[in-house]
Specification:
This protein has about 180 residues and is mostly beta strands. Helix content is about 5%, strand content about 40%. It contains 2 helices and 13 strands, in the order E-E-E-E-H-E-E-E-E-E-E-E-E-E-H. The strands form 3 sheets. It has a 6-stranded antiparallel beta sheet, with no helix packed on it. Strand 1 (about 1-5) and strand 2 (about 10-15) form a beta hairpin. The longest helix is centred in the N-terminal third of the chain and has 7 residues, at about 30-40. The protein is globular and about 55 Å long.
């Protein structure tokens, strides 16, 4: 398992070592010891979430505020997504900046999105199954979102046309009006 720092502090792209032969492949999708070596702090996961979405779906930009803030380890089990983390930490020198990368069943990469970041993704394949581990439980009272198409963020979503968002995500506030860290 190798890790590369993304352009945002604390956000890490994790690429597993894949062993392939005539039977197929094998890899460790998660190893707590190796994960802790690659991210700052002691991380404990408490919940796994999985979604199935069709091409063009954008989920996000989601986060939870304290005391239920969540870190997320995201990967695509099937298909391909453009995965995004946005720094929403007030006072951060990277506030409002975003990082995006392709996660797919084929490349088996994962993205670590620590607390203090909003997270979202866009499905690039016909369908995609996404799994993410979280460091705290979902809490309706602490759940927040930022508009996926906020012009101040200027996220370069790969699919410009035909984006599909939920009503809740489509009505999320802009970064300037959001409750932040």
């Amino acid at each position: 398992m190798t890790a590369a720092a993304a352009t945002l502090d604390g956000v890490v792209v994790i690429e597993p070592q894949v062993f392939t032969d005539a039977r197929g492949y094998f890899f460790e999708s998660f190893n707590a010891e190796r994960f802790r070596e690659r991210v700052a702090g002691d991380v404990t996961f408490v919940q796994d979430n999985q979604s199935l979405s069709r091409k063009g779906v954008v989920r996000g930009l989601h986060y939870q505020i304290a005391p239920k803030a969540q870190g997320k380890l995201v990967r695509a089990l099937a298909g391909e997504i453009f995965d995004v983390a946005v720094d929403i930490r007030k006072g951060s020198k990277q506030f409002g900046q975003w990082f995006g990368t392709i996660l797919s069943a084929e490349n088996k990469k994962q993205l670590w999105v620590p607390e203090g970041y909003a997270h979202g993704f866009q499905v690039l394949s016909e369908t995609a199954e996404v799994l993410y581990k979280t460091t705290d439980f979902w809490s309706a009272a602490h759940e927040r979102a930022i508009r996926w198409d906020d012009p101040t963020l200027a996220i370069d979503w790969p699919l410009k046309e035909g984006c599909i968002v939920s009503g809740k995500d489509g009505e999320a506030p802009l970064l300037a009006d959001a409750t932040l860290f």
